[in-house]
Design a protein that fits this description.
about 350 residues, alpha+beta, 5-stranded antiparallel sheet, 4-stranded antiparallel sheet, 15 strands
Length: about 350
């Protein structure tokens, strides 16, 4: 009798001391389960019986006595008739239904999307999400299978790719400008939950109650272009900005000695004369150029030539061309500026 009792499982329980276990198959060591055995299911656990490859009964938290009365599905599968009680064998899976928090997701490669401000742009995004098991049978069937100890890291890559795919589709459908996404992270994460959950629940038996978007970024070259455009917006009219800078220099020089002020005015006058010379504007006392003088500048100028003449960056010239302050002709992807248009701009 001692030998027979040793071959029977009388108390079935699982104490989880890990933080990353999704499902655990109870090790029966080829023992049979005693009819009337005690099954102890703790909070945040669910137990699923599997008999000969078919799903049996499911038990939630609490203490359960395993008899033919409270395991009706298993009773039907085993074909116990007339209430006949005997030991039985079945696979017992403990599933962890607690909330798994702080799981990271992110785009492995940039996402191509069409933005109303930037056109076609590549973006990257990352954040975190929480999930828990809501359908034990579907989770065992589609995810864990017959794995004895299924851990979170075995499923992380699959979940990450699935969430990134849904995030990409949702962002494209929402048509939210990239510049607005940064100010709407919380709103965007909450809006994505109804789109993520139906797919995740139907495919894996999981639910995502919290989805957080932490960052959406564009390539560095796009950020630099945006910074330049922002700088031009702050500067405003370039001609007025140059005049303001000269006035500031003269104001600072007025607090010094007369010699210092005269020197600064001389330098300013020299710069002005050089600019007038470069732009073809005749000085009041300019002499007729002699035979050795430089050839007159061409009538059509490139943005680079204008930038050299104005002592500014080519990006600044392109910005005032785009804004219409400086008239120019765009041929393909190249700008050409008439000297007369530049003279009119400088005379404003």
């Amino acid at each position: 009798m001692d030998f027979v009792k040793g071959q029977l499982l009388e108390v079935i329980e699982w104490t989880d001391d890990s933080r990353d276990t999704l499902s655990f198959r109870y090790p029966d060591e080829d023992k049979e389960i005693k009819n009337g055995a005690q099954l102890i299911v703790r909070e945040s656990q669910t137990v699923q019986f599997v008999y000969l490859g078919e799903f049996g009964d499911t038990f939630g938290p609490g203490k359960h006595t395993l008899t033919t009365d409270n395991i009706p599905v298993l009773t039907t599968l085993k074909s116990w008739k007339y209430g006949f009680n005997s030991p039985f064998k079945a696979d017992i899976y403990f599933l962890n239904t607690r909330l798994f928090t702080g799981n990271k997701w992110g785009t492995a490669n940039p996402i191509m999307m069409r933005d109303q401000d930037l056109g076609v742009v590549r973006i990257r995004a990352f954040g975190t999400y929480d999930f828990h098991i809501v359908d034990p049978k579907l989770f065992l069937k589609e995810v864990a299978g017959s794995d004895q100890h299924f851990r979170l890291d075995e499923f992380a890559d699959t979940m990450r790719s699935r969430i990134v795919s849904i995030f990409t589709e949702a962002l494209a459908t929402a048509k939210v400008p990239v510049f607005d996404v940064a100010s709407r992270y919380t709103e965007l994460g909450a809006a994505l939950i109804p789109l993520i959950n139906p797919t995740i629940k139907a495919k894996y038996g999981l639910e995502v109650p919290i989805f957080i978007v932490e960052n959406v970024s564009v390539p560095p070259e796009v950020e630099q272009a945006v910074d330049k455009r922002s700088s031009m917006a702050v500067v405003g009219n370039l001609n007025d900005y140059v005049k303001f800078q000269m006035a500031q220099g003269m104001e600072r020089g007025s607090g010094g000695s007369a010699g210092g002020l005269a020197a600064e005015m001389a330098v300013g006058l020299g710069i002005a004369q050089q600019m007038m010379k470069d732009t073809g504007v005749p000085a009041a006392a300019a002499a007729t150029p002699g035979p050795g003088a430089a050839a007159p500048a061409p009538d059509m100028l490139s943005p680079g030539e204008v930038a050299n003449m104005l002592k500014v960056s080519e990006g600044d010239v392109l910005a005032i061309l785009e804004s219409g302050e400086l008239a120019g002709k765009k041929i393909g992807s190249t700008w050409r500026i008439k000297r007369s248009s530049l003279d009119e701009y400088l005379a404003k």
